[in-house]
């Protein structure tokens, strides 16, 4: 595996994620359209499905907010790389910005200066994990700000696990139509302050049609709010709740809610 | 329903909450930084390089590409309007009648001067179908998303979400959401 292979893979993954939603996400959206009764909600969901098809047909990004470049990497411990993986990913993002193209979204947090290539200190945001095996797995998740801005984290008391559902409801209720519902909810439970946020984000990589009972229960409550697609009312405020847990300190219970818009864009590749 | 820019008050009066309206003519994109700069200009009495008094303002930061010396819009859906609550309230002092296109709604007094039209968030690809060309671009120093793009559009389909009489889809939904929330929280 060469530096250039990683660069090319990153470009192609961003292209794919921006242009085509994965099948599970499309299925969830279609289910909502077929089961929604509110008239305005149905117009919004129909537009969404048409938009998804049109983007694929024309090979253009689904949404103009092509997001911030977030990249999850799993390196098999038997792999031997003689190049800097982070700089290969960074180069991939720089070229994807020109070639896909991606909107240059990354700016300096204080001066708001925009370098124009989605690259800067800490950007792309790369999360690296070492796993068993001899493969390199790359997942990209270009994430828009409308939904990211509605996310929240709370350091709960150790025995407050029953209040997690309430916290999710609070977050979704204050978000209303802002994060482009119907949303996907990444829920991180445990780990540390920063760790639970990462868990919440990583949960959004999962197949959105597979949920356990705990997640389904929270989803039902969220949809009971009636915010609906685009905050204009309806049955479908969220399409999935996806959680990940991590062991935490005996004295704490960190909980993070990472809100994702309906355009839950991600793409995956495995290199040897 | 059809709406063509520049918009007149009597055009806006015809629109009611829930109507589907097709917008044609020119729309002006503006986000956070553009609103700040517009207000700086207007407060100093300086002329804006584009017409705002009867405009269709689009809360949008388009994805644009330069092809053979021409700007081409690739994807151009709406951004979250609530971020622009404050500057919009000030901006309304300088306009006659405007239509604002965005997503998520706004929590301000439109002073009987504006209607709010919702375009489905995230549908940037579909929106590009209705955008015929880039007429002008101003303030590119703010970066591609924050610059002001004057776009020629043809029948951009929107839903009237807040009308001139103050009827407001989001407020109605919010009231119901609050009731539902109370009921749900009791159960938790």
> In DSSP terms, counting alpha (H) and pi (I) runs of 4 or more, how many helices of chain B?
5
The number of helical runs of chain A is: 8
Q: Please tell me what the overall shape of chain A is.
A: globular
Low-confidence blocks of residues of chain B: none
Unreliable parts of chain A: none
Q: Strand tally of chain A, please?
A: 8
Report the CATH architecture of chain B. Answer: Alpha-Beta Barrel
Characterize the largest beta sheet of chain A: strand count, sense, and whether it forms a barrel. Answer: 4 strands, mixed
Largest sheet: number of strands, sense, barrel closure of chain B: 5 strands, mixed, barrel
Please state the overall shape of chain B, judged from the principal axes of the Cα atoms. Answer: globular
| Oligomeric assembly | heterodimer
The helix/strand series of chain A, from N terminus to C terminus, equals HHHEHEEHEHEHHEEE
How many extended strands of chain B? 9
Secondary-structure class of chain B: alpha/beta
Q: What does this molecule look like?
A:
The complex is a heterodimer of chains A (272) and B (188). Chain A folds into 2 domains: 3-16 and 62-142; 145-260. Helices cover 38% and strands 20% of the residues of chain A. Chain A contains 8 helices and 8 strands. In chain A, α2 (23-35) runs antiparallel to α3 (39-58). The termini of chain A are close together. Chain B is of the alpha/beta class and 188 residues long. Chain B has helices spanning 9-13, 32-44, 85-91, 124-130, 169-187; strands at 2-4, 20-29, 56-58, 63-67, 70-75, 98-102, 114-118, 131-138, 148-162. In chain B, α2 (32-44) packs parallel to α3. Chain B is globular and about 60 Å long. The N and C termini of chain B lie far apart (45 Å). Chains A and B meet through α3 and α6 of A and α4, β9 and α5 of B.
SSE order and pairing:
The complex is a heterodimer of chains A (272) and B (188).
Chain A: H1 3-19, H2 23-35, H3 39-58, E1 70-76, H4 85-99, E2 125-131, E3 136-140, H5 145-148, E4 152-156, H6 164-175, E5 183-190, H7 193-203, H8 213-223, E6 238-246, E7 253-260, E8 267-271
Parallel strand pairs in A: 1-2, 5-6
Antiparallel strand pairs in A: 1-3, 3-8, 4-7, 5-7
Helix pairs in contact in A: 1-4, 2-3
Chain B: E1 2-4, H1 9-13, E2 20-29, H2 32-44, E3 56-58, E4 63-67, E5 70-75, H3 85-91, E6 98-102, E7 114-118, H4 124-130, E8 131-138, E9 148-162, H5 169-187
Parallel strand pairs in B: 1-2, 2-3, 3-6, 6-7
Antiparallel strand pairs in B: 2-9, 4-5, 7-9, 8-9
């Amino acid at each position: 595996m060469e530096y250039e292979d990683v660069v090319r893979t990153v470009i192609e993954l961003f292209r794919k994620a921006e242009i085509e939603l994965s099948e599970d996400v499309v299925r969830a959206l279609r289910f909502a359209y077929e089961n929604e009764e509110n008239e305005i909600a149905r117009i919004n969901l129909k537009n969404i499905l048409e938009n998804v098809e049109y983007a694929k047909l024309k090979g253009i990004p689904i949404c103009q907010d092509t997001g911030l470049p977030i990249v999850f990497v799993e390196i098999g411990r038997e792999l031997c790389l003689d190049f800097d993986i982070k700089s290969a990913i960074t180069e991939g993002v720089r070229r994807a910005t020109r070639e896909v193209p991606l909107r240059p979204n990354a700016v300096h947090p204080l001066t708001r200066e925009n370098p124009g290539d989605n690259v800067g200190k800490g950007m792309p945001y790369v999360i690296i994990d070492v796993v068993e095996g001899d493969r390199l797995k790359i997942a990209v998740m270009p994430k828009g700000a409308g939904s990211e801005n509605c996310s929240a984290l709370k350091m709960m008391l150790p025995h407050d696990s029953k209040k997690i559902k309430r916290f999710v409801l609070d977050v979704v209720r204050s978000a209303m139509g802002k994060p482009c519902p119907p949303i996907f909810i990444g829920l991180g439970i445990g780990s540390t302050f920063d760790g639970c946020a990462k868990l919440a984000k990583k949960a959004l990589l999962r197949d959105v049609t597979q949920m356990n009972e705990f997640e389904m229960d929270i989803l039902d409550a969220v949809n009971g709010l009636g915010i609906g697609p685009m905050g204009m009312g309806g049955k479908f405020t969220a399409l999935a709740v996806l959680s990940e847990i991590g062991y935490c300190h005996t004295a704490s219970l960190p909980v993070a809610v990472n809100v994702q818009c309906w355009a839950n864009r991600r793409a995956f590749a495995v290199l040897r | 329903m059809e709406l063509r820019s520049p918009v007149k008050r009597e055009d806006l009066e015809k629109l009611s909450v829930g109507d589907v309206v097709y917008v044609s003519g020119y729309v002006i994109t503006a986000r956070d930084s553009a609103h700040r700069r517009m207000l700086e200009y207007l407060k100093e009495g300086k002329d804006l390089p584009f017409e705002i008094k009867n405009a269709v303002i689009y809360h949008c930061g388009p994805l644009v590409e330069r092809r053979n010396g021409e700007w081409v819009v690739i994807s151009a859906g709406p951004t979250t309007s609530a971020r622009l609550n404050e500057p919009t309230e000030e901006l309304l002092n300088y306009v006659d009648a405007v239509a604002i296109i965005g997503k998520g709604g706004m929590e301000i007094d439109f002073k009987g001067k504006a209607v709010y039209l919702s375009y489905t968030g995230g549908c940037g690809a579909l929106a590009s179908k209705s955008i015929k060309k880039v007429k002008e671009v101003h303030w590119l120093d703010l970066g591609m998303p924050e610059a002001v793009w004057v776009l020629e559009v043809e029948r951009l389909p929107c839903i009237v979400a807040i009308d001139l009489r103050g009827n407001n889809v989001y407020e109605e939904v919010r009231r119901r959401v609050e009731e539902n929330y109370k009921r749900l929280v009791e159960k938790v």
